[in-house]
Write a structure and sequence with these properties.
Blueprint lengths: L9 E4 L2 E4 L5 H7 L9 E5 L5 H16 L16 H7 L7 E4 L8 H5 L3 E6 L2 H12 L11 H10 L7 H11 L5 E5 H6 L1 H11 L6 H10 L2 H11 L4 H4 L14 H18 L1
Bound molecules: adenosine-3'-5'-diphosphate.
């Protein structure tokens, strides 16, 4: 990735920016025919909303309830699967655990047709953009951002990898009433992780004891995960465990930016009514 020039790191697929290194066109084209299963577990999140946190929670739920230990490595993002891995996925036993940051328009339609259960994670857009800004400068696959102000402007226009936060939010608001869709927010999970773990495990059809739920919640706090990532990820751990707080936006936003974000959100709500 270091040999790729910053300006070549992103490209547009159907109008949405994606990583040319991790999600080249052949991946996204192949996904158009991806065969979802009704018993897949799909985790959906806009970048920086807590995806990796929930990957870890779901893997722990699966391990606790079936005793089976899944391959621990790698993010299960389907858009990172090259065509040959997409082929291999066909042979994986059910239930498969898959995830995606894809723009709602680019999620393989068979997930909808097969009524696959989808856990969708959202986070306050102000904290999301701050987290994303820091991530850009720590991730060799993505271009370095010029400045906070420039990144904020790109984010508001949806000119960032995986597209517009607001497009994602609107699409999922419209789908949230489906019985196969569960929406959780980063803020709810921070507030009460025990309830979060219990609700998520029930949604995916796992039965855990109260003790198991409690243990998973204890192991999944920011500090616990950051600590254990030192063993699994070494230095890379810091890329995914930065602050883990609600409200960090206050350290970055100007008053005008806060107002602009509020107005954009109001516009989105107005479309929904
Ligand atoms: P910050 O940059 O605000 O710290 P994603 O996994 O979707 O890329 O999201 C990354 C964000 O989730 C980062 O936010 C990261 O610190 C936070 N995060 C990771 N693990 C967490 C945990 N166990 N509890 C709370 N936040 C966590």
């Amino acid at each position: 990735a270091k040999n790729v020039k910053d300006e070549d790191k992103l490209y547009k697929y159907e109008g949405v920016l994606y990583s040319s290194i991790m999600s080249p066109q052949e991946n996204l084209k192949g996904l158009e025919n991806f065969e979802a299963r009704p018993d897949d577990l799909l985790l959906v999140a806009y970048p920086k909303c807590g995806f990796n946190w929930m990957v870890s929670v779901i893997r722990k739920i699966r391990t606790a309830s079936s005793g089976q230990n899944e391959m621990p490595s790698g993010p299960p993002l389907i858009e990172f699967f090259p065509p040959e891995v997409q082929q291999l996925a066909k042979e994986r036993p059910s239930p498969r655990f898959l995830g995606t940051h894809l723009h709602p328009d680019n999620i393989p339609s068979s997930f909808i047709a097969k009524k696959t259960k989808m856990l969708v994670v959202f986070r306050n857009p102000k904290d999301t953009v701050v987290s994303y800004y820091h991530f850009m400068n720590n991730n060799p696959v993505l271009p370095n951002t010029k400045s906070w102000d420039a990144f904020f402007t790109d984010f508001m226009k949806g000119e960032v990898a995986w597209g517009s936060y607001f497009d994602h939010a609107l699409a999922w608001e419209k789908r949230m009433d489906g019985p196969n869709v569960m929406i959780v927010t980063y803020e709810q999970l921070k507030e009460n992780l025990v309830d979060g773990v219990r609700n998520i495990s029930r949604f995916f059809g796992f039965t855990l004891t109260d003790e198991q739920v409690q243990t998973i919640a204890n192991e999944s706090t920011f500090n616990a995960m950051k600590e254990s990532s030192k063993n699994s990820h070494g230095q890379h751990g810091n890329v995914f465990f930065r602050k883990g707080e609600v409200g960090d936006w206050k350290n970055n936003f100007s008053e005008a930016q806060s107002k602009q974000m509020d107005e954009e959100f109001q516009k989105l709500l107005a479309v929904l009514v």
